[in-house]
Amino acid sequence: MDNLCKVINQLDRKITVKVDNLMAMIEFDKIQSKYCTAEDEEGTCYSYEAIISSYFITLLNHFKSCNENNLENDKLAQYAVLWLCNKLNKNSQNRVSNLKDIYDVYIKDNKKDIEKMSGEAYNSCKDIINKKIYSMPIDIKEMSRLYEALKALCKLYTECNEKKKNYTSCSQDAQDFANEFNKLNDDNRITGNNLYSQILYALFNDYNSFKNGGAKNCSSCNDVPTLSEIKAPPSSSIPRKLIPVLLTFSIPFFLGIAYKYSLFGFDKRLQGKHLRAKLKK
Fold this sequence. Notes:
Helix content: 55-70%
Shape: globular
Number of helices: 12
Radius of gyration: 19 Å
Strand content: 5-15%
Structural class: mainly alpha
Number of domains: 2
Distance between the termini: 36 Å
């Protein structure tokens, strides 16, 4: 969880989004061009959605390179999707409302890399794409709300890890996360949806891991609230396998792209010169 929050925080610092009624402006690092679905002959991304999608692939590849445990990869894939939805939702002129549209326009072309694979890896990935891609639309606005809770949780992990005994606002930050969690838990649109409640369940577990573990290393984390149980229990399949709809997006990247690019030195590459592009609709 510490590593996940560190990478997400780095990307959030590197990506600045400003929007008005006419256009969106975004600062981005050159690393995006390695993973984008090219929009010109030079392989450059111009549109907001293409740039954000390329960073999403960066997240997935980094998480995969750092974690071999399937259960951990499941959680990281969920949180990477939350990040993607949040960034897409920030663009007031976003032309899509669900991830199926993003997949069709900006990600689908990367299947050519998957086809270079062989054996069970290729068969498994092809099966997921063919059978799961249209099984469940993912609403960007609802997922963005879940991301806000993730950011509040990441603040707890990051601040406690960095400040330890000097983390004087720990109890208040924990209460802030609990408030975000309770809003989601009281919303039938979240708890009544199998996918969203599954992600809420992951946040619930990661918060309890902090409460029972990391919080003990911070002197001001003595008064950490206890979360109420999730009102709509998640599927019993969660602890044993990846969520199919999230696999639709994560596994093609893991199998088809990660083998081509090493993310060793991820932090260093993120220090590269920023570019500013005006993205007109």
